[in-house]
Amino acid sequence: MLTFVGLGLYDERSITVEGRDAVRSADRVFAEFYTSRLLGATVEDLESYHGVDIDVRDRAGVERDPEPVLRAAEDGDAVFLTAGDTMISTTHVDLRLRAEDRGIDTRIVHAPTAESAASGLTGLQNYRFGKATTLPFEYAHGADGLPASVTDTIDDNRERGLHTLVYLDIKADREEYMTADHAAGLLAAEYGDALGVVVARAGSPEPLVAADRLSALADREFGDPLHLLVVPGDLHHIEADALGTLAGAPEELLDVE
Asked: Can you tell me the mean pLDDT for 135-163?
């Protein structure tokens, strides 16, 4: 059996009870932290909390050499851990399909995601979000300005009145995390004084939500990672009230549909 377990958003306690039970009863526990990581817990914290040893795999060890994981799942109960929810990355879908092709039973234990947290913390309704996008570091895409993958997504969503969740680039192996002020500055070059919403440290004891013009957000600091940005589309009056009350959005930016 191969069980994919999401660890949640912040520390060793963010896991669900079902996920905790799966980890503690497993014969082998694997993890990857290159797609994301828990900022409130180290691998050692996780091992101590669950009383297990965790074999952390790098990208190559998951995508090109999954054999140790698959063999462990053939021989007993193996668990594969990721931050957030476990099936957000196609890497993990691929690993699950490889297991199924070999006749290995699989199951999923879900956990909170940045997407669900962003909706809950901001008061923006989850069904009014369109396609999400990821804003890479400038050196990672090598183009001038914003990559088309970002602008096309935001433009398409705004045309339809939908909100855009903008994930911010993470280079976990280098412990490099794009900050929301940096991201807002990049977006402001294209979208100027458009409304933006920052979500910082979702899932932690002290999350932060702030809404303002992108150009204004670029001049603020939002503390420790992880950060993400939302570019809202049309606002329902409840969403506008939420951004004003929960995120301090200037009233003049809160036009409702």
From this structure: 91
